[in-house]
Amino acid sequence: MELNQWVDELFEVFDEDKDGVISRSEFVELIDVLLQDKGIRMCETIFNRFDTDHTNSISKDELKNMVIELAL
């Protein structure tokens, strides 16, 4: 599966309220699935690192950057 397709699918699944961004609570669920049992502190650290525009949400571009850095 191509990276963009994978990110699109992840985004669709975890943007539960379909508002076009991944909120902090949605992000916690995403990280829990991707990293499994690493704890809430890791989620907070990762969220803050990739919420580069400091909107307290993760855009699709920010998610793509996170996937590239953490998963590939």
UniProtKB/TrEMBL annotation:
Gene3D superfamilies: EF-hand. It comes from the Bacteria. Pfam families: EF-hand_1, EF-hand_6. GO terms for molecular function: calcium ion binding. Residues 2-37, 38-72 form the EF-hand domain. InterPro entries: EF-hand-dom_pair, EF_Hand_1_Ca_BS, EF_hand_dom. This is EF-hand domain-containing protein. It comes from Litorilituus lipolyticus.
